[in-house]
Known about the structure:
By secondary structure, chain A is an alpha+beta fold. Chain A is built from 6 helices and 10 strands; from the N terminus they run E-E-E-E-H-E-E-H-E-H-E-H-H-E-E-H. The first copy, chain A, is globular, with a radius of gyration of 19 Å.
Amino acid sequence: MYVATDCIVFGFDNGELKLLIFPRRIGPNQGEWSLIGSFVELQEDVDQAALRILQEITGLEDVFFKQLGAYGKADRDPGYRCISIAQYALIRIGEYDKELVEKHGAYWYKLDEVPPLVLDHDQMVQDALLELRNKARHQPIGFELLPEKFTIPQLQSLYESIYQRELDSRNFRRKVFSLGVLRKLNEKDKSTSKKGAWLYRFDNDNYQTLLRSGYNFEI
Amino acid sequence: MYVATDCIVFGFDNGELKLLIFPRRIGPNQGEWSLIGSFVELQEDVDQAALRILQEITGLEDVFFKQLGAYGKADRDPGYRCISIAQYALIRIGEYDKELVEKHGAYWYKLDEVPPLVLDHDQMVQDALLELRNKARHQPIGFELLPEKFTIPQLQSLYESIYQRELDSRNFRRKVFSLGVLRKLNEKDKSTSKKGAWLYRFDNDNYQTLLRSGYNFEI
DNA sequence: ATATTAAGCGTAAAAAAGACGCTTAATTAC
DNA sequence: GTAATTAAGCGTCTTTTTTACGCTTAATAT
């Protein structure tokens, strides 16, 4: 039996979530839009395979990803009997290698403009979005989609995209500060306002400490 | 590459969560305690394989289960290159076929008395418990562990087992009633008190209706 | 100097969660 | 037959969290 891994690669650009897809390289559906995926080689971990294909396409070496689940219907791929381990990956959209992406024919689509994908990949995207919504609420993974330094309005915009609903800026601000995992920097971002917004950084050390003393992250 | 599926089979008995395991049937670790698992045949869905092995061991035809995830380390099984799709299954412990279970050498262990398991199965159990804790809070899956007719104190006891902490009976009662998915029956269970406790049934129809009108289940 | 606007601060009301005292319906003990 | 016992169930007050929204501030643009 073949085993593949497919990555639902999310990016956040210009206040919108985007998905990276590329033309399928093998099989009867060659050329159709597909998630970023590859077969798992006999001697490599499934996770290694995901890292390998993510690096091959984006040039990034340590992409953040988590497993979504296995898709194992016997008839999911008309070509071979193949199960796929789906992974969702979160990328800082400013950091990937644009030439490499272009070379592979990969493209970032806004989430609501993604064309039909091959096999069961549409389903995977839908499932990944639900999973992202749940996970991002309870774990600090959203930061993987933002630059290392970000503003509160940026963070809010991200969460509005993930949850697909507007949030009150004043309440959002209070909420995220109450988590105690944002470290304020001495810099402002002035790209979106005259006044400028303070930049923050996710304080992972403190997050880990808090975790150990039994606290509950929730945005 | 081989593909297997392993089921973390939970039951709730006597106020405690239990795990069903059996002696491994193949490979170098034959005879050691293992989760309920099997290879996935070439022509069957992964889910079908899970149902098949669950039925083979418990005699139940429609066991509730959800996927936990794929375990895909290259060296996880010293015998073969084999990835495993882990599933957690919830069983009404009064309903399984005791003869069949015995025949296969399977046994229900209290969660804190489970012996060491083969391969990465200990890890799977640990992960499944965390997943159960999360899922049972936000989705009405706990009912799969109780008889169709149950009392509020039974439900509370179940959630105390899942969360591993005590709950206030008066607040718990208020909470579950506010969900609006319990249908009161005209019967009492008198097995644990003189006064008797009213029996309830999970009202799935109403749950589905509420879901569609955007409500949020949380216990 | 004045207008403009995203960023940021504060407060009051509503809802949810937590703590806990008391009553009730049945059985068991005398 | 009466009293004691106890899990089940009801009600209330307090604290915390969430929601709604008015107002100020720091900078640029006019």
